[in-house]
Amino acid sequence: MHRFYTCFVLVIGLSIISAYRPVVIVHGILTGADSMLLIVDEIQRHHPGTVVYNTDRFEGWSSLENAWHQVLEFNGDLQKICEKHPDGVILLGYSQGGLLARAVLQTYPDHCVKKFISLSSPQAGQFGTDFLHLIFPSLVAKTAYQLFYTYVGQHTSVGNYWNDPHHQDLFEQFSIFLPYINNDLPSTNSTLFRDSMLRLEQLILIGGPNDGVITPWESSHFGYYNESDDVIPCKKRKIYLEDRIGLRTLDRDGRLKLITVPGVKHYEWHLNTDVVESVVLPHLD
């Protein structure tokens, strides 16, 4: 009887462990895999047995490389992971990593991502001097377009998602990344970019008003500035209203979650156990 009970408990334990989907993590700008270890530890502490892939590509200054180059490399990694886990994985990206991760799944028509968690990422773009000074101390938002909307500027990841609301003509003319993955500009991949998003079971967008880096912070929810510097929320922008990448469809089906958490600074989202436990772990079940 004791032997049967032991085997029964073992089987139940293995069933619980196998219920947790593998998690793929993409770090933020100017950091690396080590910066995401707290999330890895919390996942494995609360969900023992979970397989976690914490990518170490494009760490440090290499995170400033062209966004499409990074997406291509990450895409190859995700394909290998999906081959190992055809039943599906959860993809989590922090800061710039959330934007790149979203582009990865959009460019992978048969991806196995069931849930995508974007943790304080500039999904609608970035336009803020405080953010710039972390990387380009001499630049200010007002004139940064003069660098970013050039051939040279588009060799940087930041330039690829710099979205100046006062120079939209130049943004559409020079930016080779953001206006395409957001389907602001049509391309031969427009249908792919939308259909791949619609493969998700759930899209979780997390951000907050005290972030201090993502500017405007509503970009983490696909909200953004208009020409008057007023922030237009996601559901009043064309990307949603025209369902350019499937946000409206996901929302209609109950698959879109916009989560706002006040009082969290940008560098706390992935380094504060209370934040991780309250806004990340609940979506890994």
In short:
This protein has 285 residues and is an alpha/beta fold. It has a domain at 23-129 and 188-224 and 232-283: Rossmann fold (3-Layer(aba) Sandwich), CATH 3.40.50.1820.
Written account of the structure:
It is a single chain. With 285 residues, the protein is an alpha/beta fold. It has a domain of 196 residues: Alpha/Beta hydrolase fold, catalytic domain (Rossmann fold). It contains 13 helices and eight strands. It has a six-stranded parallel β-sheet, sandwiched between helices. It has a two-stranded antiparallel ribbon with strand order 6-7. The radius of gyration is 19 Å and the shape is globular. The two termini are 33 Å apart. Belongs to the palmitoyl-protein thioesterase family.
List keywords for this structure.
alpha/beta, about 280 residues, six-stranded parallel beta sheet, disordered N terminus, Rossmann fold, 8 strands
Per CATH, the superfamily of the domain at 23-129 and 188-224 and 232-283 is: Alpha/Beta hydrolase fold, catalytic domain
* N- to C-terminal distance: 33 Å
Number of helices: 13
How would you characterize the largest beta sheet?
6 strands, parallel
Name the average pLDDT.
93
Beta-strand segment tally: 8
Instruction: List the uncertain runs.
Output: 1-17
Order of helices and strands: HEHEHEHEHHHHHHEEEHHEH
Query: If you compute it from the alpha carbons, what radius of gyration comes out, rounded to the nearest whole angstrom?
Result: 19 Å
The CATH class label of the domain at 23-129 and 188-224 and 232-283 is: Alpha Beta
The share of residues in extended strands comes to 5-15%
The second-level CATH architecture of the domain at 23-129 and 188-224 and 232-283 is 3-Layer(aba) Sandwich
Alpha-beta content class: alpha/beta
Strand order, largest beta sheet = 2-1-3-4-5-8
- Percentage of residues in helical conformation: 25-40%
Shape: globular
CATH topology of the domain at 23-129 and 188-224 and 232-283: Rossmann fold
